[in-house]
Every structure is written in C-alpha cells, then in structure tokens.
Fold this sequence. Notes:
By secondary structure, the chain is an alpha/beta fold. It is built from 19 helices and twelve strands.
Amino acid sequence: MPFPRATGILLHPTSLPARGGVGDFGPAAYGFVDFLAAARQGLWQVLPLGPLGYGNSPYSATSAFAGNPLLISLERLADHGWIDRSLIAQLPEANGPVEYAAVFPSKMPLLAQAARNFAKTMQGNARARFERFRQENAEWLEDFVLFDGLRAHYKLANWNEWPRELAHREPAALDKVRRDMADDLMMRRVLQFAFAEQWRALRHYCAQRSIRIMGDIAIFVNYDSADVWMHPELFRLDGDRNPEVVSGVPPDFFSATGQRWGNPLYRWDVMKQQGYPWWVARLRAATQHCDYIRLDHFRGFAQFWEIAASEPTAIHGHWVDGPKDDLFVKVREALGGLPFFAEDLGYITPDVHALRRRLQIPGMAVLQFGFGDVGAHMYLPQQLTPDTVVYTGTHDNDTLVGWWSSGATADERRHAEAYFGCAADGMHWSFVRAAQGSVASLSVIPLQDILGLGSEARMNTPSENDGNWRWRLQPGALTQELAAKLAQLAEVTDRLPQPLPVPPEEEFAA
C-alpha cells in the first residue's frame, strides 16, 4: 500500500562532513537532521549501514546484521567518557572526499582504544544496556565478532583462505580461538554496541522531529562475510566451499557486459524447507533499525541472473526463478507487515510487477530515466501512481547537473526542455519540483541534486571498481535559504512531515 505522502533527502552518513575523514553519527549528523527539520523534510534515506568489505561498498558488507564501525562518532564516545577528547584532535578536519586507505589506520585504532576503555570500566546503566544488547543480538553477534577478529588476524584474507579447521568451523578450533582472542572479541562486541547505541540515539532525535529513516537492503550478501561463513548450507557452494555460481545482471543501460557482482547465490530450496529463518531475522533487524526499507534488486526475488563462477563477465548467465510470494508470506506472518518498497528499475518483466502488486509493495521511478524513447516515459510524473517512490536520481546515477552537462543525449535534453521549459534556478530544480509535485507517495532527492553539484559529486559508477563511495558534503553548504526553499515546496506539494510516535527518553551509553 502507498506510504503517507512525504518527501526527503538521500544522503549516506559517510558523506557527512565529520572529523576523521569519513562521515559518522556525530555532530554533523545531528546538524543534518536539524536541516531536514527546518526544510520540512519527513524522510532521511541512507544506504546499507553494514561493515565495509570489497571496494568499500555499502552493498558489499561483511555482515548482513552488524554495523559499520567507521560510522561511530568519536566525539560522542568522548562525551560519554570512553576516550580522551585530545586524542580526537589529531584526526583530519571535515573536508574532502573519503580516503579509506587513510581513514582505517587513523580512526579504527582510536575506536578500538575507546572500546577497550569501556569494557574495563562499564558499570550501572551502561553495563546493563551492553548486556541487554548482547542478549538481544546473540543470534549473530558472537559469530560476527569471531569472524571479524579472524579476518583481521589473517590480514583481510577471505575466510576460505584461513586454516581449514577455522574455515570449516570445527568446534574445537573455534573454542580455542575464543579463548586466545577473548580481549579482542570483547572490543569488537563493544564496537557493535556503540554503533547500535549511537544509531538508536540519532533515530530518536529524528523521531522527535517527525523524520522517518529509509534504509536499504542488498538482496545478496558478500562471499567474504560472516553470513556465508556461518551458514554455508544456505549458499550455492561446492565441496571446498567456493561459490559454484554468482550473482549479477545481464547487459543493460549501465554496462554492455552486464554487471558481475560476484555474490554467492542462495539455496532457496533449503531456505524454504527451513521456513526462511535467516531472511526473517534479517528483515526483522532492518525494520527495527529503520522505518521504511528499500529492497535492492527486487526482481531477484522473482528471477535472478545466475552466472557460473568461472565466467569473467555477466554476459553468459541465465535467469532462474526466485522464491517469489513464498518468502514474503513468511516474512509478513513473522513481522506483521511489509514496510518495504521495491527497487524495480531497468528491464522488468510483467511477472515482477505482478509480484510487487500482489505483495502491495510500492515500486520506484527515476525521473532522470524518463526522457529517452517513448518507453522511458513510464518514469515521468504523468505516468506515476501513488504506490511509487519517485527519485530524481539514485546513488548509481550521475548527478542531474553532471548528467545534463555531459551524460544526456541531444534527444533527452530536447525532451526535458520541452517538458520543463527554462528554469531560472537550474534544470535540477525543475526535476526536484516535478518529483515533489507528482502523485507518488514518497519523493526522495539525492542531496547532490538539491545542491546542484556536478559529476565530481557522483556517489557510485556501476561496474567501475575504483573511486566510488567517496563524496562528502562540504561544511556550510546547507544554508537557511535552501531550507526555506525546500520547506515552501514541501508545503505547496502537500508533503509536510507527519508526526511519529516518539519513544521515551533514554540514557544512551555511547
């Protein structure tokens, strides 16, 4: 069913201008929420928040359940006495793109030091909250910290390259590691606790201002992840636990050779026999962390592109049926509802649309795609329906200004000019106003498009391995004038925030 009418902004937390070279849940995040409130925005969309794996992509996490420690704010840890504030001052200022090769060795040791300090001194409410966190997340936490610790010990080698007794999870070997690495594992538990505490506190701040969080779930998980190591029986692996087949998409708008994502594919038959407990747990956790969830690559639940692991590209794959309704029936029974919307872009067959409609899950539209041939007009406002989430572009698109200046074809430019006319404040604002004024229940605009930034601010270029996920907002870019302009647009398009139930005040430990 359509969501209540609202509008919001897409900004991944790593893009915030925080000290330390990467955005986090600290002061800049609260400043952004204040901007959203002043701009009368009711939504903040983020990308997946898991710990980063290959290519530093949020969609290639080392766990489907754990949080990215880089998002933990050292300033907030200092506020709670976990670390001396003077140690944070040595970190770089909040300028420039994310340089992950520098961020990891500079920020992670300070986070580890803070976690060890907390582990030694926690007491009272802080200890009680930590123990409750351990208990509530025991299903994934203990195995994740063990995986994370072993991954660090073996210098980020894939788990299948560890000693066989560890790769194959022999109980005696795991018990020995737990004893030998006890202090390290406690530090990693505390980091996950700090992530959860800070995200919960930030969400509470959002709820007080009627701002809902839109999360994102990647359909597949990384091979080098705690999930595959813990549950090899759920994935298409051979006798040596290497992938037999991997995920991707066939050639499309983004790539002539398709996209070979490389994630191992699921044994959907085994998952069905078990009643989909892993998926139920995963989606339950997502709904506890966010208000609405975007299901990335929704068509994979109807049919997915299967590629032999030996193939270097995605060209020689084939479509295979997914779980379809069966999975979501189980999820609805367990969760009591489906607060999801589907990423159903690109070449989508009628059965995928039918599945989404049967489940009453809204779909997506991207205005930037709407000005090609007649078939692309399905993304234009006059074609939309209320059960749609409309975007000007996504994290995979060039920014509107970048697209307009160098990516759009002559026909696309001519069609857009005929549709919008000439906007004194830039073509990107014509797109923003069209999205807000459409009948789509939710309108989400990447912050780069609101700021009118060019291709230098692009977040991701699909099929390119380097240079992605690095863009950061410059301090001072979110002005009162910009907030006032967005607030007026939200009011006139009937997208003002709707009040949220606000949980009682809590004494957060981080």
